[in-house]
Model the fold of this input.
Amino acid sequence: MTERTTYLLVDGENIDATLGVSVLGRRPQSDERPRWNKLLQHAEHAWHQPVRGLFFLAVGDSLPSGFVQALIALGYKAIPLRGEGKVVDIAIQRTAEALQDRPADVMLVSHDKDFVPQMTDLAATPDRRTALVGFREFMATDLQDIPGIEFHDLEYDVHAFTSRLPRVRIIDIDEFDPLEFIL
Done:
């Protein structure tokens, strides 16, 4: 019997855009971007099984070699794509559909509602774990409403950032820590 695997499908464009536009209100500096190694570690620790990180990115005619080499060194399979339309979304949708026939668990790192059909199908498969990773307050409602899907916050659960982000989010009273606001 083969060991079960978690597939971590990273929509790098979506995370960068959400961080820049919605959280920071400007283009993120390199030290403000997620520590992608933390994401791999979190996925492996959360579900106690091997993780295959697939990092999808749109490129033009030149490969961002430094970034791609860094992803590979961290353990990701970099998937640079070019073409017409939303090439990253198309590739992630196709990958999610291909995973439907495999005994694998799936974590989607994106806020994009374009993945609702594929994630709904994956989540409906018995004995398959599915999760969304990102910022809940910016996650498409349709994604959050998928029955049985887990949520992992990129900042608070994954600890992918080296400093606190300027986020305003709804806090469950049981998780409220006044020291976060008076320090």
User: Anything to note?
Assistant: The first strand starts at residue 5 and ends at 11.
